[in-house]
Structure formats: C-alpha cells, structure tokens
Amino acid sequence: MRMRGVQFLAGILCAAVFLAAGQTPVTPPAESHTDCGGNFTGSSGELLSPQWPQDYDNNASCVYHIAAQPRYFLTLSVNAFSTADAEDVLTIYNGMSAGPPDTIIGSYSGHMLGAGDVINSTGNQLYLTFTSDAVNGTGGFNITYRAQPVPAVACPDPGSPDYGSRVGGDFRPGSTVQFSCDDGYTLYGNASLTCTDGSWDARLPTCKAECGGNITNATSGVILSPGYPDRYTANLSCTWSLSAPEGTLLQLMFNNFSLEDGKDFLYANDENRPDDQPETTLTGSTVPANWLSWTNNVVLQLVTGADAGMGGFSLAYESIPKTFCRDPGPILHGVSTSAEVLYSAGQSVSYSCDAGYQLLGNTTLTCLQGRQRIWDAAPPVCYAPCGGNLTSAYGTIVSPTHDPDNAVSRDCYWQVHVDDSSSVIIMFNSFQLRESDAYLTIFDGGDIAAAPLANFSSTAASADVYSTDSQVLFLFHHGATDSYGNFSLTYFAQKKHCPDPGTVNNSQRSGDDFSVRSSVNYTCDKGYDLEGQGTIVCKPGNPPTWDYPKPRCVLVKECDDPGTPENGQRDSDDFSVGASVSYSCPQGYQLTGETTLTCRRSPGSRPKWDYQRPVCEEVPIQLCHDPAFLHYGTYTPRTHHYFVGSVVTFSCDSGYMLKGNTTLVCIMGDSRLAKPRWSNAYPTCEKAQVKTSSASSGGNAALGVSLFVVLALLGVGGVVAYKWRHKILELLQKTKTNNTPPSFDNPMYEVPANNPDDGPSVEQSAEA
Ligand SMILES: *[C@@H]1O[C@H](CO)[C@@H](O)[C@H](O)[C@H]1NC(C)=O
Ligand SMILES: *[C@@H]1O[C@H](CO)[C@@H](O)[C@H](O)[C@H]1NC(C)=O
Ligand SMILES: *[C@@H]1O[C@H](CO)[C@@H](O)[C@H](O)[C@H]1NC(C)=O
Ligand SMILES: *[C@@H]1O[C@H](CO)[C@@H](O)[C@H](O)[C@H]1NC(C)=O
Ligand SMILES: *[C@@H]1O[C@H](CO)[C@@H](O)[C@H](O)[C@H]1NC(C)=O
Ligand SMILES: *[C@@H]1O[C@H](CO)[C@@H](O)[C@H](O)[C@H]1NC(C)=O
Ligand SMILES: *[C@@H]1O[C@H](CO)[C@@H](O)[C@H](O)[C@H]1NC(C)=O
Ligand SMILES: *[C@@H]1O[C@H](CO)[C@@H](O)[C@H](O)[C@H]1NC(C)=O
Ligand SMILES: *[C@@H]1O[C@H](CO)[C@@H](O)[C@H](O)[C@H]1NC(C)=O
Ligand SMILES: *[C@@H]1O[C@H](CO)[C@@H](O)[C@H](O)[C@H]1NC(C)=O
Ligand SMILES: *[C@@H]1O[C@H](CO)[C@@H](O)[C@H](O)[C@H]1NC(C)=O
Ligand SMILES: *[C@@H]1O[C@H](CO)[C@@H](O)[C@H](O)[C@H]1NC(C)=O
Ligand 3, residues 43, 44, 71, 75: which to mutate, most atoms within 8 A of Cβ? Predict the structure, then answer.
C-alpha cells in the first residue's frame, strides 16, 4: 500500500468542499488518489479504483455508495476497466448496502467491462464494492456516474363514479380531473384527483342518493329514494324540504315509482295549501301523474315499513311561475282530454261522457288570459237520464242519476228501435239493485203491451236477453230513495236470419247470407231440370222465413220436342232416351237432312237428338218430256205431265218387236238444277226377223279371235298372270252370252292399275 499523505488530505478537503456544494469531487488528472470508496451524493462524479490511474493495491476492500434524489436513477458510464484476475472484483448493487443476491446488478473482473459500457440503477441509490487479493494487481477502473430524473409516468384512466361523470381527460403527471354526480346524487370523497408519479392522489369518489335533504332555491333538480336505483331499505323516514323562489310553484314529475303498496308511502305536502286540498299520499307501483304544489314550499317524506324495500322513486322537480290554469281534474262518468297539469292562456280541455250518460254544461273549458289564470267555465257534469229513445244499432243504458234534491219514486222508459230486419241482444255490464222496490222489466216490443222478455230485481243473475222484435222497451222502476243501486247494460242490433235452407241434390247453391232480404240461388247441374224457384229470398217476419220452398233438380229423361218441319211429318211423339223419330215430306217436297233422329244421353249433360231436324224443301215443278213418237208402237199413259216418279209403258204393234226397256220412269235430274229425265233411252219397235243376232255374234266372234291371238302371243310359256287370264276368259264368256259391251268398270272385278310392276296393261298388250 502506497500512501501519499498530502494528496490524501487534499482529496478529503476537495471532497468535503464539493460534497457541501453538491458537486462531484474532481480529482486532478494524472495524479493517483489513495483513498478507496466513498459516499457520493452529487448529480455526477467519478468512481475510481485505489491509486487510479496507477494499479490498484493488493488486499483492497473499497465501498462506494451513491445516493441521488428521490425520483432519480443513476447511470454508470465506464471510462476504463481492467483487473488482474478473477479475484479482483467490482460488484455493483442496487440500494444502499450489499443486499441479497437479487439486488446485485453484476460482479465484474478482468475485461468484463470496457469503455462505453453503461449500467443503470433501478432506484436512486447504488452500492459498489471493490476487493483485490494478495497477488499484485494491475489496472483499475474509472467510472463516471450521473444522477438522472426518472421519466414521468402517466396515471391510469380513473373512470367515473356510478351515477356521476368526470371532467378532464388528461392523465399525465400533474394533471387534475374533476368529478360530479348526476342530479339527485351526493358526492362522497374527493371531487378532484391529481396525477402524481403514475397514480392518483386519492380514491375515485362515489355518488349516492341520500335519505332526505334541504334544497333551497329549488328551481329544478331530481330527488331519488335513498340508494336509488338500488332498492331502498326498511324503516326509513326521509324528509326533503324544497323551497322554490317566491311567486313560483313546484311541479313534481315522476319518472319511476315503485313502493310497497299500502306499506311504504311518499307524502307530498305543502304547508299553506287550501283547506279542501288533501295531503297527497303516494304508494304502489303506478307512476303518479305530475303533481303541482299550491305554494312554493314543499315537503316530501318517504316512510317505509319493516319489509325489504322496493325499487323506489325518481322524480324531477321544477319551479314554475304561477301564470297558468291548473288541470281542472277528472269528472264522474266522463273523460277529459286533460293530459297536462298546467295550461297557459288559450289552451283548452274537452270533456265527454261515458256511454249512457249525457253531458250537462260546457264540453270545452278554455284557460283565460289574466294574472291569476282561471278557466272560463266549471267542468261539466255527466248524468244518466231517466228514459230515452234510442235508434242506433248499439247503445248503453245505465241506471238514472239520482236527484239528491228530489228523491221521488220514478218509472223510467227507454225505447230501443233498431232496423226492422234486426232483433236486439241485451248484455248486462253490471246489475246491483239494493232496494226491494226497484226492478227492470224488458218487453219484446215497443210498448208495455208487448210480451215481457225478462224482469230483474235485486242482484239477480243478469243473463243476456234476446228479443224477437226490432223494438224493445225497458221499464226501470225505483222507490222514493236515492240509494236504489245501479245497473248498466249494452244492447246490440242483430240481423234476423232465416234458417239455413240447406242444399239441393244435383245443384250448386250461391249465397251464404240468410239474413232478411238476402237471396240464395240454386243452379241445377247439367242434365237436371229445376222444379220450383231457383232463387229464394228471406222474407222479414217473426221469425223471418224463405219466400219459397227450396227447389228440386230432377234428372232430364227426354230430349226436347224436336218439332216438325214445315210441310213435313213426324212419325212419333216418343222423345225418351233411346227413342227415334222419323220425318217425311209430301210429294213436291224434298227432305234435306237426316230422316231419322235418335234421342241420346251423354253423361253429365241433357239428352240430345243425334241430328238436327231435317227440312222439307219444295221441289220446283219440273216434268220429264213427253216420250218421243214411237213408230209401230204406243205408250201409256198419254198425259202431258210426267212428274218425277211417273212411269210410262211402251208396246209395239203386232209384227213388231220392242227393243229396249218396256217401261221408263221419270227420275230426278243428276244435279239439283238439272231437269228430270227418263230413266232409260226410249225403246224402238222393229220388224220381227228370223236371224237377228248373226251380225252381232260375228262381230263378237271376231273380237274373240283377236283376243285369242293376243293370248297366244302373250301366253306362251304361261307367263300371263292368272288374274289377266281369268279376266280375258271372263270377257270371252260375256261376248258369247251378252250383246251389251263388256264393262271394265264392273265392281265385281279388280281392274289392274296401269302399273309397270303389275305387267303391261290390256291396251299395251293389244298393241303389242
Ligand atoms: C477518468 O476518465 C475520464 C474520461 O476519460 C477522464 O476525463 C478523467 O480525467 C479520468 N479521471 C482520472 C482521475 O483520471
Ligand atoms: C460513508 O457513510 C457511511 C455511513 O453514513 C460511513 O459509515 C462511512 O464511513 C462513510 N464512508 C466514507 C468514505 O466517508
Ligand atoms: C440507461 O439509461 C440511459 C438513459 O439515462 C438509457 O439511454 C440507457 O439505454 C439505459 N441503459 C440500460 C442498459 O438500461
Ligand atoms: C496481504 O495479506 C496477506 C495475508 O492476508 C499478507 O500475507 C500480505 O502481506 C498482505 N499484503 C500486503 C501488501 O499487505
Ligand atoms: C509486487 O510488488 C512489489 C512492489 O511493487 C514488488 O516488489 C514485487 O516484486 C512484486 N511481486 C510480484 C510477484 O510481482
Ligand atoms: C381528499 O379528501 C379528504 C377528505 O375529504 C381529505 O382529507 C384529503 O386531503 C383529500 N385529498 C386530496 C388529495 O385532496
Ligand atoms: C334541514 O334543515 C332542518 C332545519 O333547518 C334540519 O333540522 C334538518 O336536519 C336539515 N336536514 C338535512 C338533511 O340537512
Ligand atoms: C337560484 O338558482 C338560480 C338558478 O340556478 C340562480 O340563477 C339564482 O341566482 C339562485 N338564487 C339564489 C338566491 O341562490
Ligand atoms: C258554458 O255553458 C253555459 C251553460 O251551458 C253557457 O251559458 C256558457 O256560455 C258556456 N260558456 C262557454 C264559455 O261556452
Ligand atoms: C220516445 O218517443 C215516444 C214516441 O215514440 C215519445 O212519446 C216519448 O216521449 C219519447 N221519449 C223520450 C224520452 O224522448
Ligand atoms: C241470385 O240471383 C239473382 C238474380 O240472378 C241475383 O240478383 C242475386 O245476386 C243472386 N244471389 C246470389 C247470392 O248469388
Ligand atoms: C230396263 O232398264 C233397266 C235399267 O235401266 C235394265 O236393268 C233392264 O234390264 C231393262 N229392261 C229390259 C227389258 O231391257
């Protein structure tokens, strides 16, 4: 250990001076200092190993303690560091002593630290130890410390109290936020909080609804049951005194109201109210209508019983100048349009009476101009008259209002006359007659001569009553008392109905309304005939009835009469299904159309004739010519009018033979316009001869020969089709037996078509 007394002393002095001034002791450079460790409180300084800048001592044990102001931390900046070996160690602690291991920032030896390294404290103090062993050390350290302020930390969002609010959103250190409670709540705690070092200086305040309070200058605000909106508690007696400015009244407007009915009460009172105005007592769970005081001083009192509380109340109060009309209030047996507590000049309230009552007085009241506002009239009165005439389809009749000044025995008559096609249903809303002399009789008609329908007295079970008539008379009688009780009934007109007429087989019904004067129509299905009235109408009457029995629909079994054509005749009058009728026309007329019609039925429809009726058309008088003059013969009859159908017979003189038809018939022309003609050519009378047929038979023979030649030419090898062969043979046969030329149109035979597949035609064959 090398000691330099002067330097040491100087160092102490220096340190003392600078410490007193809060400054770092400044060691003159290049000169080593002998002390080790030290207490440092300045804002900055140097931590030096013993003998720095020369090698530190053996067996050194130095303690450095650095203490900065609160809310500061320390930064160590290494200027130089080296020790000889691991036994020469600088250990750095957070805090003011060598604390437990978790306070150690680090132990450094050798070259574990170098120039430029920075170590920060967590708090405002550091504690360093430097020890060296017996072995000669080399090196040392030069570390600068600096005290630095801890950066400012903002406070968390403080939130807002329930039923309150906050003003201010700056949560930085030093900022202040304010709190206030909603109307009706009182603030408990600090109304303003300040942020210091990351936390608020006080707890968040709370807002509570209190039990009672004195409110002076009560212009507007809120009053809540204690603890609102939580339930209030048992056995409370809370009083709120409200003083509104002179010349004003207080209006209470309830937002919520729930008190145990009949056990917990809110009393609203003003001391100088008129004598006839009772104290207002509120209970239950119906939100009360607005309440208006008579003076400017109001006392509210909540008194709760022993049971657990309910939801309580929330009301707003407001002082209002006395320049208005006060709600005239409800009337008995009537309703008003009143919805406000206050009415200003010119505003109106209208009244109407309940069903069965009549309004006496003014229907509408208007608030008059003036300093003390008043209504232009008193509210009207609703009273029930003793009797009346009612013609509407429904109505209400109530027991007549008592006349307190004139309690006499009365008979009251109500005549109800509804539409003649309706009857009346009477239903009781209430019926309670206390007096034995009081009764209500109902008649089924317009006067007391009608049959009584019902008679009620006392609290008789008041069943519904049905009239049959469209008129009903009510007679109510009571004795000379005003306490006979009361009743209320409602009547309705009900359309009278015919009974359901039902359906008719094989028909469609239209109309489901069976009320008087309505009609129901029946339409028979196809194939059925209506018997009776297709439309029936419900006739007014007592009871109403249908004007006709419902009809029937009967199956149609015959066709309609087909009629007879003009000039024609029909053979039968049987038109039933399956029967036929035939028509004929006289001479000179011609039947056009079908002669015979048959009546047929197809399902689901009426029977019908299968054809239309024919007509007899006049034939124009058209005659055949007189037969031509006949040589050597004659004909009968000889008339000049040969109508269609006329027959003439020809005969020849003796020695002559008739050739052709003996009889000719006058027949219709080939078309409708052609004249009639004779059926055949006129015959001739020829002199009788012995050999009459040789020439013609010779001709036939010649034809036969030529056909044979054709056959011979074609038939070699039997190539000719059998059909042709057969036909040719047939022709040959005919030429032998008959003089008439052969016809290829004879339908008996099939004529070969001119078709190459079938072979050559006869003509081609003949040419070939
Ligand atoms: C310690 O190091 C600093 C920075 O290099 C220097 O300015 C100061 O003079 C040194 N102190 C001594 C006593 O050598
Ligand atoms: C530092 O302060 C402590 C206690 O305050 C004391 O015991 C110690 O001797 C002081 N060290 C120096 C070098 O003054
Ligand atoms: C020490 O503090 C300084 C500010 O003074 C900062 O710049 C540096 O990053 C910190 N170092 C560590 C290791 O925390
Ligand atoms: C260091 O201490 C050891 C034993 O503790 C001793 O032998 C040695 O002489 C001391 N060295 C110095 C320089 O004081
Ligand atoms: C230790 O230092 C002393 C004085 O400087 C010196 O005499 C001695 O030889 C040194 N020992 C070693 C081992 O270097
Ligand atoms: C908070 O309020 C309490 C009592 O109301 C008072 O004692 C305290 O000083 C207040 N604190 C602050 C920070 O205002
Ligand atoms: C209200 O005032 C009256 C008298 O002035 C007093 O007796 C009462 O305690 C007060 N109530 C409250 C809640 O402050
Ligand atoms: C009463 O309250 C009103 C409104 O809050 C205010 O304008 C008035 O000055 C107050 N009067 C008194 C006497 O406090
Ligand atoms: C109110 O009614 C009374 C009697 O019915 C009538 O004399 C008076 O004029 C009415 N007043 C108004 C304002 O209609
Ligand atoms: C009802 O009308 C009848 C005539 O139909 C009449 O005699 C009677 O006075 C009227 N009753 C009332 C109350 O109007
Ligand atoms: C019944 O027929 C008549 C006459 O065709 C018609 O006026 C009436 O509306 C019909 N009624 C119904 C219910 O169809
Ligand atoms: C008369 O004519 C008819 C048909 O025109 C014929 O069928 C009939 O054979 C002929 N009679 C005689 C005798 O020629």
Answer: 75
Residues 6+ apart with CB under 8 A from 372: 322
Task: Return phi, psi of residue 290, to 5°.
Answer: -55, 145
Task: Quote the CA–CA distance of 570 and 597 in Å, as a whole number.
Answer: 10
In sequence order, the β-bridge partners of residue 237 are: 303
Is 381's C-beta closer than 6 angstroms to any atom of ligand 9? no
Distances (CA, A) of 640 to 311, 439, 652: 134, 115, 21
Q: Residue 522: what pLDDT?
A: 96
Whether 361 lines ligand 9, by a CB cut-off of 6 Å, is: yes
Helix (H), strand (E), coil (C) string for 158-208: CCCCCCEEEECCCCCCCCEEEEEECCCCEEECCCEEEEECCEECCCCCEEE
Least distant ligand from the CA of 133: 4
Q: Which segments of 329-464 are extended strands (E)? A: 334-336, 342-343, 348-353, 358-360, 364-366, 381-383, 388-390, 394-398, 410-417, 422-433, 439-443, 452-457
CATH architecture of 507-555: Ribbon (2.10)
Q: Distance between CA 727 and CA 754 in Å, rounded?
A: 16
CA separation for the pair 666, 646 (Å, rounded): 5
Provide CATH code, domain 213-322: 2.60.120.290
| Distance between first and last Cα of the chain | 171
Phi, psi of 659 (to 5 degrees): -115, 125
CATH label, 38-149, candidates 3.30.230.10, 3.30.565.10, 3.40.50.1220, 2.60.120.290: 2.60.120.290
* Domain 507-555 matches domain 569-618 at the CATH topology level: yes
- Tell me phi and psi for residue 697, to 5 degrees: -70, -35
186 C-alpha to ligand 7 centroid (Å): 16
Contact 590, 512 (CB under 8 A): no
Residue 336 DSSP class: E
Which CATH class name applies to 164-208?
mainly beta
- The structural domains of the chain, with segments of one domain joined by +, span 38-149, 164-208, 213-322, 324-383, 385-495, 507-555, 569-618, 623-690+749-764, 694-736
User: From the CA of 354, how far away is ligand 9's center (Å)?
Assistant: 21
Residues of the chain with pLDDT under 70: 1-34, 276, 370-372, 461-462, 542, 620, 629, 672-673, 690-768
Ligand at shortest distance from the CA of 650: 12
Q: Kindly state which CATH superfamily the domain 324-383 is placed in.
A: Complement Module, domain 1 (2.10.70.10)
For residue 281, the SS3 value is strand
Instruction: Supply the pTM of this predicted model.
Output: 0.41
Separation between Cα atoms, residue 193 and residue 171, nearest integer Å: 10
- Note whether 311 and 231 are within 8 A (CB): yes
Phi, psi of 737 (to 5 degrees): -100, -20
Candidates 586, 588, 587, 595; CA nearest to 613 is 595
Q: What is the CA radius of gyration of the chain?
A: 70
Q: Which CATH architecture has domain 569-618?
A: Ribbon (2.10)
Per DSSP, 576 falls in state: B
Nearest CA to ligand 1 atom 9: 29
* Length of the chain counted residue by residue: 768
The CATH superfamily of 385-495 is Spermadhesin, CUB domain (2.60.120.290)
Q: Is 110 exposed, middle or buried (0-12, 13-18, 19+ CB in 10 A)?
A: middle
Q: Considering the domain 623-690+749-764 in this protein, what is its CATH number?
A: 2.10.70.10
Buried-exposed string 594-611: b where 16+ CB fall within 10 A, e elsewhere: eeebebebeeeeebbbee
Residue with tokens 């040789």: 694
> Which residue's C-alpha comes closest to atom 8 of ligand 8?
217
CB atoms within 10 A of CB 76: 20
- Of all protein residues, the one whose alpha carbon is nearest to atom 11 of ligand 1 is 29
